[in-house]
Design brief:
The structure is a single chain. The protein is of the alpha/beta class and about 900 residues long. Helix content is about 45%, strand content about 15%. It contains 32 helices and 26 strands. The strands form 6 sheets. A 6-stranded parallel β-sheet has the order 3-2-8-9-1-10, with helices on both faces. Strands 13-12-14-15-11-16 form a 6-stranded parallel β-sheet, sandwiched between helices. The N and C termini lie far apart (about 190 Å).
């Protein structure tokens, strides 16, 4: 190889080495860079991993902290709810859990009671806490239910704890009475049956409160309806060492408050006495009648408003309408008793306008018809020789269904013709003028034809008529004003309230008469510096906050069913001035009989509405009555669905004979019937027995014959105690006799309706017929430890007697007979009675002549009456003979007659009479 080649070779090798070195360097650098990059990447990754781990660890720690805090919060929230539930359970502090205690708890807790855990929060709790929470939430969600359950358990537990104390008391109590004693609601209503030990329960309640440390004797007030009951409670309290408790009537409490607030007690006004009040009213009327406007208002009331057509229109049958008319008094201002309210209005209009009149004077001209009774027009004006007929129909010839319209129109035609025949002046008045209040212009126009000029009587003459007399129809007005005064003042109704409550023109007409009386009466009391019983209560409500006395922890009220509006206000005010005071109210709605004195049964039956939460406890065990009297009296009073239903039981054994005896008396001689019952008791060796003789009214109790019987049978070993049923409340005896169960006035139940204006100041009636009279009968039935004797009229028995006979067949003893009063075909009342004379028998309506209904007498036995069986047949209620019913009038039956001219036979209606009157149906025999 040459040098050049060598050089070239060497150069090439050097170049190759140089390139190889460069390449290696570069590769090394690249590798180093790669390694460095990879290391950096790894470092970065590791850094990232470490950061992620750190973040994860931080988040885990945060999550754990959050969970811890959540659990802590849930546990705290649960704990609060559990604590609230525990506080709820502890609220009664081992005593009765009253509604007011729960209300205070709820007020203290406020919105916190609505808090609840979410599902998430609930999942964080441990099992034990979760279970406790569930119980707490259930308790807090149903607080009232929890309170009720607690109280039921409390009552059972407390009765068991106090068994020894209850058993050791001199007066033993039933479990019902013990429950009433330990029940301690804000207001506790004890609904007690007759003879169930109401007073014993009240006294035991007072003892219990002191025994448990719930009150001292001085912190207990017992209120009674009347003085006798308050004195009995005071004696019983004294007997158990509780003289420090207050036992009082409502009026005595109010009077004491007056003394404390005013420094002295104003004297009780003599006007609280009936006679003094009557004298005051008469003087007041004489004074007010000097005012022309008052005279006009009075005349309008008497003639137009005293009885209105609306008042009578509510009667469901003609019989009820006739009874209703009688109940509103059918006596005129001059004391004459007439037959209808329309006649009262016409007579009083003539009296007020100075026109002297006579009622049903016999027409002086004789009639030539032996079949007619002597003609007696309704009114005669002797000074003017004018006769007045008030027709029992309107100008369209419509008349009441108890009147035979065709026969009546024939009678009108005959009377008109009779006056025309003898040329006697006749004024005809239709019902339109009476009830449309056009009597004044009409009568002035008619009388002017005969020279009669009406002139209103003087104020003195009118005052004399209005004087409070039992023999005058005017007495009804004065009695109404006095009743209204008692109820209005007792109910604390203001004049503004009365005006606002007035419903119609009649109410406003009455208030125009009453409000001046009220103002004058109150002014008279103020002038004399005197007080009446209503003011004792009304003023005490305002005065109670001003005195430091009369602060009680407990107020116990007897006979609460007779509470009035003013008494309720006193009860409420006693609670107001003694915050936290609790009430125990004892009574029996079945014995609520004092509505006439202002009692409002709704205050009892709806106590919760007036007093808030009220626990109810029933005393259904009667210690007085025998079983059948208990059952019959309970069914009797419960015919009224408005009464509170309760089951009454008795531990006494049944008598060997019925406990209720019906004993009839003939006519009006109920004293003869009473003597027969007393003789029966003497013959049954009842010497030493106390016999309560009860009457609906005072007259029989005060009768001379009653005093003679008391003396006579007192010597023979019977202790007779005559009293009214109202006064018998709270009394009991070995036997009871109830007098006067008649449908004839004075009847029992009373047929006298309360005047509608009294609804402005008294409790609304419950709508059930004779509801208060039914409760009065219940009181009478439940006074006896033995038998009850019901004295009733045999011919006109009380509807109560008829009801007992219908409902209690076989469970009563019946002495004597009870007349079957048949249904009148005209007035629809059970008013058809048998009357007989010398050879004649008539079955006619007891309302005659206002109702012309009658039934034909049986021609077969001449004893019974023909009663409709169906549209075709009538049957004698005595001998059961059947005859064909008249197809035309359906009131009579067909009788076979012989034609006097040709001896042929024909059938004629028994209702056909001479002079072409009555039904003229005939057909061939």
């Amino acid at each position: 190889m040459g040098v050049v080649g060598l050089i070239v070779a060497v150069a090439l090798i050097w170049l190759a080495l140089r390139w190889s070195a460069e390449f290696g360097r570069r590769k090394g650098e690249e590798l180093a860079a790669k390694v460095a990059a990879e290391a950096a990447a790894r470092a970065a990754e590791e850094a990232r991993a470490r950061a992620a781990a750190e973040r994860a660890e931080t988040e885990a720690r945060a999550a754990a902290e959050r969970l811890r805090l959540e659990r802590q919060g849930a546990a705290s929230k649960a704990g609060s709810l559990i604590a609230r539930a525990a506080a709820l359970e502890a609220a009664p502090r081992g005593e009765y859990f009253a509604a007011s205690v729960l209300a205070r708890f709820e007020a203290e807790q406020g919105a916190a009671l609505q808090e609840r855990l979410t599902v998430r929060e609930r999942s964080l709790l441990d099992a034990a806490t979760g279970a406790a929470l569930s119980r707490a939430e259930a308790l807090l969600s149903d607080r009232e239910g929890a309170r009720n359950r607690y109280n039921e358990a409390f009552v059972q537990r407390r009765m068991a704890e106090m068994k020894g104390w209850f058993d050791a008391r001199a007066t033993k109590l039933t479990d019902e009475q013990r429950r009433a004693v330990v029940t301690d609601e804000d207001a506790t209503l004890v609904i007690a049956a007759a003879g169930s030990g109401k007073t014993a329960t009240i006294v035991a309640k007072a003892e219990y409160l002191v025994k448990r440390g719930l009150a001292t004797p001085s912190q207990i007030c017992l209120l009674a309806y009347n003085k006798r009951a308050s004195e009995e409670m005071a004696e019983r309290l004294k007997a158990v060492g509780m003289e420090g408790a207050t036992a009082s009537t409502f009026h005595a409490l109010g009077y004491a408050v007056h003394g404390q607030a005013l420094g002295s007690r104003p004297p009780v006004s003599p006007l609280t006495e009936e006679l003094e009040m009557a004298k005051f009213m008469n003087r007041l009327f004489r004074s007010m009648l000097g005012q022309q406007q008052y005279r006009l208002d009075l005349a309008r009331w008497i003639v137009e408003m005293r009885v209105t057509l609306d008042m009578l229109a509510a009667a469901p049958t003609p019989h009820a309408r006739l009874q209703l008319e009688r109940s509103y008094d059918l006596r005129t201002l001059t004391g004459v008793r007439v037959k209808s309210q329309a006649e009262v209005k016409l007579a009083d209009w003539m009296t007020l306008n100075g026109i002297a009149w006579e009622y049903e004077t016999v027409y002086p001209h004789r009639q030539n018809d032996p079949t007619r009774r002597a003609y007696q027009p309704d009114f005669y004006l002797p000074k003017f020789g004018v006769w007045v007929e008030l027709w029992a129909l309107d100008r369209a010839h419509n008349c009441a269904p108890n009147i035979d319209a065709a026969s009546y129109l024939q009678g009108m035609k005959w009377k008109r013709a009779f006056h025309d025949q003898h040329q006697t002046p006749l004024v005809e008045v239709f019902q339109d003028e009476i009830w449309n209040n056009t009597i004044d212009p009409y009568m002035r126009l008619q009388l002017a034809r005969f020279g009669v000029e009406p002139t209103p009587i003087s104020a003195d003459a009118l005052a004399t008529l209005i004087a409070d007399s039992r023999d005058s129809g005017a007495s009804r007005l004065t009695q109404l004003l006095r009743s209204f005064l008692t109820l209005q003042r007792g109910g604390m109704w203001s004049q503004e309230e009365l005006r606002a409550k007035a419903r119609d023109a009649r109410d406003r007409s009455f208030l125009a008469l009453y409000l001046p009386v009220l103002s004058a009466y109150e002014a008279e009391l103020k002038k004399r510096s005197e007080i009446d019983f209503d003011q004792m209560l009304g003023d005490s409500v305002a005065l109670l906050p001003r005195v430091g006395t009369h602060r009680f922890n407990y107020v116990l009220v007897d006979e609460f069913q007779d509470t009035s509006r003013s008494r309720m206000e006193v009860i409420k005010q006693l609670r107001t001035v003694s915050p936290g005071a609790r009430l125990c109210l004892v009574g029996d709605d079945w014995q609520s009989i004092n509505r006439f004195a202002g009692s409002d049964l709704g205050l009892f039956t709806q106590a919760e509405k007036h007093l808030g939460m009220t626990a109810r406890v029933a005393l259904g065990t009667t210690f007085r009555l025998v079983p059948d009297v208990t059952e019959i009296s309970s069914r009797f009073v419960m015919q009224n669905p408005s009464q509170i239903r309760k089951e009454v039981r008795t531990p006494k054994g049944a008598l060997r004979e019925p406990g209720i005896v019906l004993h009839g008396y003939e006519g009006d001689d109920q004293f003869k019937g009473l003597r027969e019952v007393l003789e029966l008791l003497v013959s049954r060796k009842s010497a030493g027995s106390r016999v309560l003789v009860l009457s609906r009214y005072k007259a029989p109790i005060e009768h001379r014959a009653m005093k003679e019987l008391v003396d006579e049978f007192g010597e023979r070993g019977l202790r007779l105690d005559p009293t009214t049923i109202h006064r018998s409340k709270g009394l009991e005896a070995d036997h009871v006799v109830v007098m006067g169960l008649s449908s004839r006035s004075p009847s029992f139940p009373s047929a006298t309706e309360d005047d509608p204006v009294l609804q402005l100041v008294s409790a609304a009636p419950d709508g059930f017929l004779s509801s208060e009279e039914r409760r009065l009968m219940y009181v009478a039935l439940t006074r006896s430890r033995g038998r009850v004797y019901l004295l009733h009229s045999t011919s006109e028995p009380s509807p109560f007697v008829e009801e007992l006979l219908d409902r209690e067949k076989g469970k009563l003893e019946v002495l004597g007979r009870v007349s079957d009063r048949l249904l009148c075909p005209r007035c629809q009342g059970r008013t058809i009675l048998r009357r007989e004379g010398d050879g004649w028998v008539i079955w006619g309506c007891m309302h005659f002549p206002m109702c012309e209904g009658r039934l034909a007498a049986c021609q077969g036995c001449n004893e019974g009456a023909m009663v409709a069986v169906d549209r075709q047949v009538m049957e004698c209620n005595g001998c059961k003979t059947r005859v064909q019913r008249c197809p035309r009038c359906e009131a009579g039956h067909l009788k076979l007659h012989t034609n006097s001219r040709d001896q042929s036979k024909f059938w004629a209606c028994s209702e056909g009479r001479r002079n072409n009157e009555g039904c003229r149906y005939t057909r061939n025999g």
